[in-house]
Specification:
The chain is built from eight helices and no strands. The protein is mostly helical. Helix 1 packs antiparallel against helix 2. The protein is globular.
Length: 164
């Protein structure tokens, strides 16, 4: 017997939402995409729940859904700016730095944003990111290199975490 769906959602929803927010740069869209993916996963949970790593499977579903949405609507609809959760107490300097960095991340192509989010929010290896994005580890390294070069970031992206 595998993990039941309700337990999985309780354990994983926040992490999936955090990943979707960073990649989509839109909290409402992220919530919609996560909800859609969880509905699809719930319908297939009898199979997914028996997998060795159901979270990896659902994370791949999420990545595919975001990329699919971006391909379909990314050029048609303008994306609203990411609204940071103002309820999180944070010194002004850290908020300014986080907002500036999130704006820069939002300008990256979706594959680079996904690679950044999976590396720094999900702490995945190049091989694991490659599985999620459907590419080779060398391509993952290229996405990360280009993204970090574009961002000119030398430190980790821990300050970006939109959900605490």
């Amino acid at each position: 017997m595998g993990l039941d769906f309700e337990t999985y959602v309780a354990q994983s929803r926040t992490g999936l939402l955090r990943l979707a927010i960073v990649v989509t740069d839109d909290r409402e869209l992220a919530q919609d995409v996560v909800q859609e993916v969880l509905m699809k996963a719930g319908q297939r949970w009898a199979k997914i729940g028996r997998l060795d790593h159901p979270h990896a499977y659902v994370r791949r579903m999420l990545s595919n859904e975001i990329i699919s949405w971006h391909r379909k609507w990314g050029r048609v609809e303008s994306r609203p700016a990411l609204e940071l959760d103002r309820a999180i107490p944070d010194p002004a300097g850290a908020v300014d730095r986080r907002e500036a960095l999130l704006r820069e991340v939002a300008r990256l192509p979706v594959q680079q944003r996904s690679a950044i989010a999976l590396r720094y929010f999900e702490d995945l290896s190049d091989e694991q990111i490659g599985v999620v994005l459907g590419c080779r580890p060398a391509t993952v390294r290229a996405h990360l290199h280009r993204a970090l070069k574009t961002l000119r970031v030398e430190s980790t992206l821990e300050a970006l975490n939109p959900i605490r």
